[in-house]
Amino acid sequence: MNVVEMDNLKKKLDEIDIKLLDTLNERAKLVKEMIHHKKLQGLPAFDPVREREMLNHIAKNNQGPFAAETLQHIFKEIYKAGLELGENDNRKALLVSRRKKAEDTIVQVNKDSIGDGKQRLIAGPCSVESYEQTAKVAERLKEHGLTLLRGGAFKPRTSPYDFQGLGLDGLKILKRIADEYQLSVISEIVSPNDIETAEAYVDVIQIGARNMQNFELLKEAGQSRKPILLKRGLAATIEEFMNAAEYIISSGNENIILCERGIRTYERATRNTLDITAVPILKQETHLPVFVDVTHSTGRRDLLQPAAKAAMAVGADGLMAEVHPDPAVALSDQAQQMDLEQFDHFVSILKNFGLHTNKNE
């Protein structure tokens, strides 16, 4: 075969490739249309029975030289790519998606603009146990120029015999302290029925990891006028996390702060495994601010500082950490809360790393 004949064969292959490309794109448009109509009818996009019928049809009509198994493998990839087109369209449609809104969402919490490029710290006790205990922590926050106080009043615990929180009395304590020390309060609410009550006492409503897929709670939070801090579930994928936030925003509340708090894996060296890559992924995929809870993700005081530095380095909008005047007698999470001296050291190190406080404005 001479050079001219070889070139002619190459041109024919190029022409066939273009025809294949046009045919694949035409097929993709039909698949997208089918998926759209299936969604309107409440039907799943993937139909395994139909796929098997199509693969059998391919094998039956194959005249070589490819083996039927080879062609079936190729067509399975084509089918898979078609389904992914539908999933990509769904992601584009999400109100939390960066594709839907290119600019960053700034969540206003009193005087703090969360997501404005300044990295902030939310800190406070795991549980509100008394006015005196919480006030000691609030005073230390104030000394450091920090303005965001966390504290648990309603505590969903793994064991029904563990301390469950002070409930409404805990919220009243937080409100009193917030007014006295000019702080903003973040506290978890576990029941849809308590959202309206909580609005009178807190500045940010937290939805914890165990309630990330409590859909009635998410929808009720979506109707609140307060910002929502949504924690990632213990074993939730990033897609599931984003869809949980979608429940809130689609119900009318776009003031959402996402919080990565570690996921459950086989590793036992830490309480959970901090998925540090979730931060840049969520920043790319959504327009919402992203915080990292270094306390629950590690469960170890000795890892709080390096975990916090890592979170700040990958672009987190802020951190959450727990501090208690005397962790040894705390009613919950004694092993992971910092005492006041440890907290002072923690904050001083992070200030040098870029942590924003009112004292470095």
UniProtKB/TrEMBL annotation:
Matching SUPFAM superfamilies: Aldolase, Chorismate mutase II
Keywords assigned by UniProt, alphabetized: Isomerase, Transferase
UniProt superkingdom: Bacteria
MF term (GO), any: chorismate mutase activity
Pfam families attached to this UniProt entry: CM_2, DAHP_synth_1
Keyword flag Transferase: yes
Residue ranges constituting the Chorismate mutase domain according to the UniProt record: 1-90
Protein EC: 2.5.1.54, 5.4.99.5
Record protein name field: 3-deoxy-7-phosphoheptulonate synthase/chorismate mutase
